[in-house]
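User: Run a structure prediction on this.
Assistant: Running it now.
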Amino acid sequence: MHNRRLSILEVIRRSNYFSDLDEEQLDKVVELCREDSYAAGEAIFAEGSQPKDFYIVERGRVALDANFSARPGSWKRGTVDVITDNQGLGWSALAGLEALTLSARAIEDTQLLAIDGIALRALLEQDPRMGYAVMRRAVAAASARMQNTKETLARILSIAAHDLRAPLNAVQTYISVMAGGFFGPISDQQKDILARCTERLTEFSDLIENILDITRFEEGYLPKEPLCLSELLQDTVELLRPVATQGEVSLELEMPPLPLWVEGSSGRLRQVMSNLLGNAIKFTPSGGSVQVFLKADDGQVLVEVCDTGIGIRAEDLPRIFDEFYQGAAAEARTGPVMDAKGVGLGLSICQKIVAAHRGRIWAESPCPNTGRGSLFCFTLPRTMVETDNGGGRGASARKGVSGNGREEAPDRG
């Protein structure tokens, strides 16, 4: 019995959660331990539940699994981490939480030290120094595991997207050749069918690119450089002019006289501004207006896009930046590109881009300036850049325009 206690003490001492404790504190933890055995494949606890016990692997291996979803209603289970000798699992029992629990299953015949969560929490509360030492390790382990979960999903999506690209490009090439009559004459009806196929394949290709965008942001890849946001916004408005003109939507831009600079990716920030402006035009009926403002605000640069369109329902507003979410507006397109399709990734990607620039993005509906439509805003940290003339293309501008120079506007949600 004494030897067994020493063996348990050694496992506790080597564990990543309790390695900072002194001998007296370790003895108190040993008093709470019992040994549990699990056969290969047997579940220890399920995702979303609250484990009653905190575990340390004495011998064997435990897989931590999570449910992944690339789209609503489609779930796949994947292994996030494998816990081996002297490592801990079930940290939610240690913290008294349940929302962030993964599933745990034995990969092989496994021996665990189980510690009652309530008793362990009480012990840590009695000894604050001990509690701090253990919870500091628990927070680090939980943070690493959450990051590993995100990276696992990003890798899965990236691999799947890349694997889909090659056959998709081949099919698009074959359809283009057939539509061009290289394999013989085709009827107008056949041409129409091939054109519809091409449209759907283009939507699929855009979806793959959006998924790849998400994985890039999850992996933290975003090169930045000093850039003039005033110039970038003005260029974006000019690019969007033709479509707004076609839809008889007035587009106005107002900027301060001096240019505003930020540290960022010009391509990605252009993507955000094109998405917000394109959405505003898309959801604004003919005769309506879209106003764009660029302001300096307490060390930040603020961009506002205000429209007089159909607005966003109150129940949709909290979720419009969620991945794959499309509100009622997606079914009620009334603007010049009302036939544009999407899967609800546009605003989610915008949010990730802005967050990667250490900024914030939000929406209000109706727009407080007009009492109608919607207001989309985002902020970025301002960068001070020395210029020769202090002016340039960032000068004040207020233009009545209609349009958006993109062939297809992005999704509102």
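The longest helix spans residues 128-179.
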